[in-house]
Write a structure and sequence with these properties.
By secondary structure, the protein is α+β, with helices and mostly antiparallel strands. It is built from three helices and five strands.
Length: about 140
């Protein structure tokens, strides 16, 4: 399966790198897709589609780099906050089938909102808590 993010990691496509570390990398999103100046994507360098199949080691490295990028946005861009966004799996509207986190710098009154305005129309029978607790323990 062809993966555009793997192409970036392997040098087969150009990227505007913010950081490249052992197990994780960060790059600026394409200008036409940027939600804010400095909008950065952080990915594992190993291929994983989503949170369900990434190795724990790679996930630790990716989240550590997300934190570094967030700090850099405060220092380098004067951001007073960040939004970290992830869509994982086909039911989430994931745009590229390689795990990635959007780190979006935020400022007061930037005219941007990221929280859903409505609740899901999906319903389930029963209390989701016990089902989740059982599945987490597996």
């Amino acid at each position: 399966m062809h993966c555009v993010f793997c192409d970036l990691v392997e040098g087969r496509a150009p990227a505007r790198w913010v950081a490249r570390e052992d197990g994780a990398a960060a790059f600026l999103t394409l200008p036409e897709g940027a939600l804010a100046p400095g909008h950065t994507l952080v990915i594992p360098t190993e291929h994983a589609v989503g949170l369900h199949d990434v190795s724990p080691r790679a996930l630790v490295r990716v989240t550590a780099l997300v934190q570094k990028v967030a700090r850099a946005m405060a220092v380098g861009l004067g951001a007073t906050g960040v939004n970290v966004l992830n869509a994982s799996g086909p039911g989430s509207e994931q745009s590229v089938p390689h795990l990635h986190f959007h780190v979006v710098p935020r400022w007061p009154d930037d005219g941007f909102t990221t929280w859903p305005k409505q609740r899901s129309r999906r319903g389930i029978t029963g209390d989701p808590g016990p089902a989740l607790a059982t599945a987490v323990a597996l």
